[in-house]
Every structure is written in structure tokens, then in C-alpha cells.
DNA sequence: ACCTACGCTTCCATTCAGTGGAAGTTCTCG
DNA sequence: CGAGAACTTCCACTGAATGGAAGCGTAGGT
């Protein structure tokens, strides 16, 4: 993790003990399967797992067997391992994911039906927008987003909305780091971003264009819970056009309001 | 697990050692959160976890802390714990869940749009139908199914389809056990079930009525992968009516075929 | 305000489960 | 058929995990 004491350098003949707990080693094994970017789900051999988790082969062998017997990993005929169904089963039980998704899905479907565009549902998690749901239809502009993906806050519609309503220290911290530029039009100047956030708060809507994926634009709106707090964001991602389509904006607003109402938000002014 | 040597009986003053490995104990903690039936996602106190996992409090405390630091559990202000986002993130990466879902979703959306009924996608997992996806709309007859749920094979549309195309030893084993009767019309006689399975194979479609939930019926069809194997099933669940709606059946067939084709199935006769 | 009860957290001596190097096995490919 | 790679099993050693006990914090009762 820290990267400093993990090497087997140092003075003399130190052999660099690994002070991770059993639990940490078990987790390291699962983490070895975390898909790097927009990659397809991983499938690894025992040796590959050992390397990625930085564990001796025999230890890996034993711990992987524990995961398999529980169902967290599964072993395929060819000797490759992949994440197991048990993880999926438990994962979908996670309260935030499950409750939000269940409540929001009907409204996302409506939004998809009326617009026929990619529909996204995301929450703020750490420094990223975490995509809880994505509806796409057959056509589909190729996008990097997918369910479970983490994308930057400053270059996505949902991300900007989430940032706009985030506590100021989160904004502070986020803007303090170097914002990656994906396309020429990506806004990366902290002050310019702040200005946008203010506009978004004023409008209750974010518009993005050509900032993450070439040829695509997005419209996003905040979802509030009963306390009025913004807990998620919906968006549609469209092919970029010259004109703003007010119907699309309305549809996104309607979806966001629908979900908010279903969450118990009553448009308190507070 | 086995239930025999876990007690603290035996002769003399044995104190019954717990021979679970660290890994097994960690897993027992997660399993404590597995939602029992159609219950809402769990949230537990440390003590409750310790009881459910059958672990001493101090051990539970330490291991729970490990889960929390990794993100597999999260601790709320009130001191309650719940499954953490990390589990969700890894869970959605699980190959079967992710690939099948991603490919199938557009077709499920079509099916929902044309029928406006509950749409289900399920796979066979052990002795259960495991629900991978569920679309519902706002109206919604109350159903027990939900994403991640496990329901019996003999009393659900998707279940019967999956069983109809399962290897014969699976069918054998399944029918060898007592099949639960949920409603008067639930078919539980092994021979009657076998007869149904044959009909389903002949028709390529299953019809169920009033066998799991009062007032609801279902139509289900098999999804095949490129090898021709049935890997999943789609269904719609409707309010029970007197007449069969051929349009609905056609819609389910179309959806199932669409997904099969997208999976690479080419209608080989084999 | 005080007390009791309950649930959580920390501590630490004991011990046994986990460790990992090495040897054995299986599979693959030239 | 032989070399190499990947996986599996073995087992003596040891330090990490264990869990009882004591300490802390808070809620509720009187």
C-alpha cells in the first residue's frame, strides 16, 4: 500500500516481512480482480493472482481455495479463476445500491423511453462518480461508463452535479488536485469549474459537451432524499448537436424529481 | 456447518474449540448479513453480528474492523453495520452477472415497453432460480422476486424453464426432494412436474398461473448461448386473466431469441 | 444525580493456525 | 520424449490471531 517498506532492499540481509493480516491478504486477492479501467471482467490464473496480490504462491493457493469454497471466487475448467456469484449476491444487497436502484429504476426506464438515450444513475463515492445503473438500448454511442464504473467528477454530467451539491470541503479537496483533460473542451481550471458549479446550482441542471467522450454530450440533474440532501444524479448522454433540446432537459428534470419524490423529498425550501 | 461437533457437549469438560479458519470466520461475518427472505437489506450491531456468526465479541470486533477498513462493511453513525459499497463494486464485476446482464438488458427493456409487465431474468444456481435482473415500472403487482433473490424452480416461470433444460441429474436430484406448495395450484408431484418440463421443451415456453403469488401468472422462455445451451430464462409476470394473450407470448419469445442471438446462438439444430 | 445494564473497545499472555520454502505432480509445447 | 511452467501438497517453525477480562461510554430507570 504505502510502497516504501514492501521492497526487499534495505541494509544487510533483511528479507522484508509482510505484515499484512490474513484478512488483508484475502482482500488483496479479491482486489487482484478489480477491473483496471473499462476492461472486460477479469479471469486470472493462480500465478497471476499471486503476482497481483504480491503473495507467495503457496499462500495464494490456500487462500484462493478458501474463497472458492465460500463462493467468492470460482474456478473454471481451464484453471482460471474469476469473481464468484456469491459476491454478486451479497453485493446487490448493499443498502445504498439496492434501495436507490430499486426506487429509481422505474423513473430511469421512463426517461429512457421518452428520450431513447443512454441513461445514467450515479452517486458520489470518494473522489469519483460511481455508476449505479445504466440503461442503453441497442443503438448506443460507445461510452466508457458501465455499471460499477468510477469516472471523474469534473468531466461527466452526473459528476458535476454531484460536485455542485457536495460539502464545500469535498469540492475544495477535489479542485486542489490536477484535473485530467480528456478532450480539448474538458474544463480543468479550478475557478472555471467553480463557476460552473454555481451555474448548476442555479439551474438545477448540468450540461456537458465533448468533455469526456468525443461526439457525446450530457444533461444531468440532482436527486434529493427526504432531508433535501443531494444523494445521487441522473443523466442522459446524447450525440452532440448544435441546438439545445428543451424536451430532453425537461425529461431529465422530471426523472430526477420523480426519484426524489419517491425518496420522500417534498421540495422543502430549507 | 455440519452441526455435529460445534456444540459444547461431549464428555468431560470440553470447551468445544472452534476449528474455523480465519477466512471462514470472516465469511461467517458477511453471511450474517445475507437477507433471510424477501426482507429489506440488513443493518446489524456488532453484538448481533457476533451472535449470527457465532463468534466471540472481541474476535468479531477485530474482524469486522478489517472488513470496514477494506470497504466490505460500512459502519454508520448509529453504530450499526451494513454491507459496504466495495462488495457492490466487486459484485457487479462478476462475469456471468455482468456479461449476461449487459447483453440482455436492452431486450428486457423492449419486453417491458411492449408488455408493461414485470420482466425477469434468471439463471440456474444450485437448486434455485437466481434473479439477475428485474424491471417493474411504477404500477407493479407486489412480487417476492427482486434482484439477487433465490426462488424455487418448480413454482416460478423462469425456474421451470431452467429446470426443463437442465442436465437430467439435476432434475433427478431436484425432484427427489419435497417440493413446497405455495398456493393450491402449485404443482408439486414429481411426475406432474416432469410432464410439464416435457411440454415446456416442446413449446419452448412455460406458462404458470397462481403457483407462487396469488393473482399473478407468468410466461417464460429459455435463453441459449452460442453452444446452444440454455443459460438463462426471461419471463414476464402478469395479473392472472382467463385468456391467453398470444401477443405476450410472442413478446417473451422475441426477447429470449434476441438475447440468445446477441449471445451468439445461431439456431443450430444440433 | 446516581446507579445499573448493556454494548463497545482495548489489552495482552498463550498457543495453534497460518506461513512459505521446497519437493512432488501435472500439463503443455516443441 | 524432455524441458519448462504452472499448480498442488507437505510440514517444521513461529508470530499472528485468539478470546477472556477489564475498562469505557451511554441510555434508561428511579
TrEMBL record, chains A, B:
Cited PROSITE patterns: HTH_ICLR, ICLR_ED
Keywords: DNA-binding, Transcription, Transcription regulation
Pfam families: HTH_IclR, IclR_C
SUPFAM superfamilies: GAF domain-like, Winged helix' DNA-binding domain
Record carries keyword Transcription regulation: yes
InterPro entries: GAF-like_dom_sf, HTH_MetabolicPath_Reg, Tscrpt_reg_IclR_C, Tscrpt_reg_IclR_N, WH-like_DNA-bd_sf, WH_DNA-bd_sf
GO molecular function: DNA binding; DNA-binding transcription factor activity
Protein's UniProt name: IclR family transcriptional regulator
Amino acid at each position: 500500500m504505502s510502497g516504501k517498506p514492501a521492497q526487499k532492499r534495505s541494509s544487510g540481509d533483511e528479507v522484508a516481512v509482510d505484515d499484512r493480516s490474513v484478512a488483508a491478504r484475502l482482500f488483496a486477492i479479491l482486489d487482484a480482480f478489480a477491473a483496471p479501467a473499462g476492461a472486460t471482467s477479469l479471469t486470472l490464473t493462480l500465478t497471476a493472482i499471486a503476482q497481483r496480490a504480491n503473495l507467495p504462491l503457496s499462500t495464494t493457493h490456500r487462500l484462493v481455495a478458501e474463497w472458492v469454497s465460500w463462493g467468492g471466487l470460482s474456478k473454471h475448467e481451464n484453471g482460471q479463476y474469476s469473481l464468484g456469484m456469491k459476491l454478486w449476491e451479497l453485493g446487490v444487497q448493499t443498502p445504498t445500491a439496492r434501495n436507490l436502484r430499486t426506487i429509481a429504476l422505474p423513473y430511469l426506464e421512463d426517461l429512457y423511453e421518452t428520450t431513447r438515450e443512454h441513461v445514467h444513475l450515479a452517486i458520489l463515492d470518494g473522489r469519483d462518480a460511481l455508476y449505479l445503473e445504466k440503461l442503453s438500448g441497442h443503438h448506443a454511442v460507445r461510452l466508457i461508463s458501465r455499471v460499477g464504473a468510477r469516472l471523474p467528477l469534473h468531466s461527466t454530467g452526473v459528476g458535476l452535479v454531484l460536485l455542485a451539491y457536495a460539502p464545500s470541503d469535498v469540492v475544495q479537496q477535489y479542485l486542489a488536485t490536477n484535473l485530467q483533460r480528456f478532450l480539448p473542451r474538458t474544463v480543468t481550471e479550478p475557478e472555471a469549474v467553480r463557476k460552473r458549479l454555481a451555474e448548476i446550482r442555479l439551474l438545477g441542471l448540468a450540461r456537458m459537451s465533448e468533455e469526456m467522450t468525443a461526439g457525446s454530450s450530457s444533461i444531468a440533474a440532482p436527486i434529493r432524499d427526504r432531508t433535501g440532501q443531494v444523494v445521487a444524479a441522473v443523466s442522459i448522454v446524447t450525440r452532440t448537436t448544435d441546438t439545445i433540446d428543451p424536451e430532453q432537459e425537461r425529461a431529465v428534470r422530471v426523472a430526477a424529481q420523480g426519484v426524489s419524490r419517491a425518496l420522500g423529498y417534498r421540495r422543502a425550501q430549507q
